Amino acid sequence: MSLGLAPPAPRRRPSLTPMIDVVFLLLVFFMLAARMGAEVSLPVAGGAGGTGEWSGPPRLVDIRPEALALNGVETPLDGLANALSSLVEAPTDPVVLRPRDGADLQRVIQVIETLSAAGYTQPILVE
């Protein structure tokens, strides 16, 4: 009894072209998604291991999502440097920054950059 099966078809080698296309697409994606700019460093001292001596009145800036408070008094961001000028002896005096009520990192960086532009060189970030 003969079943009469057809001879098996010759095996085809898989094409590598689709895989190469995917690899190149991933390569282009990661190249475009990578940060190509210069890194920005912010001069921030840690709250626990400060080495400088504290002198003068307190300088505590509470950073909230919509407002800033310097020593409990609400202060606008553009007036923060002027409000701090009467509390510091020199721009190298530490200023304590404390994020509150879910303030995001971008808001904290915005405050640090504003203080740096005004000449304050020692912000201290605490929890």
Can you describe this structure?
The protein is an alpha/beta fold. The protein contains 3 helices and 6 strands; from the N terminus they run H-E-E-E-E-H-E-H-E. It has a 6-stranded mixed sheet. The N and C termini lie far apart (87 Å). The model has no long low-confidence stretch (mean pLDDT 82).
Question: How do the helices and strands line up, and which of them pair or pack?
Answer:
Blueprint: H1 17-33, E1 45-46, E2 60-63, E3 68-70, E4 73-75, H2 80-85, E5 95-99, H3 105-117, E6 123-125
From the alpha carbons, calculate the radius of gyration and give it in angstroms.
Answer: 30 Å
Count, helices: 3
Q: State the share of residues found in helices, binned by percent.
A: 25-40%
How would a textbook summarize the main sheet? 6 strands, mixed
| Elements, N to C (H/E) | HEEEEHEHE
Low-confidence stretches: none
> How big a fraction of the residues is strand?
15-25%
Mean pLDDT: 82
Overall 3D shape: rod-shaped
Query: What strand line-up does the widest sheet have?
Result: 1-6-5-2-3-4
N-C termini distance: 87 Å
- Number of DSSP E strands: 6
Alpha-beta classification: alpha/beta
Keywords:
3 helices, 127 residues, six-stranded mixed beta sheet
Summarize the structure.
With 127 residues, the protein is an alpha/beta fold. It has helices at 17-33, 80-85, 105-117; strands at residues 45-46, 60-63, 68-70, 73-75, 95-99, 123-125.
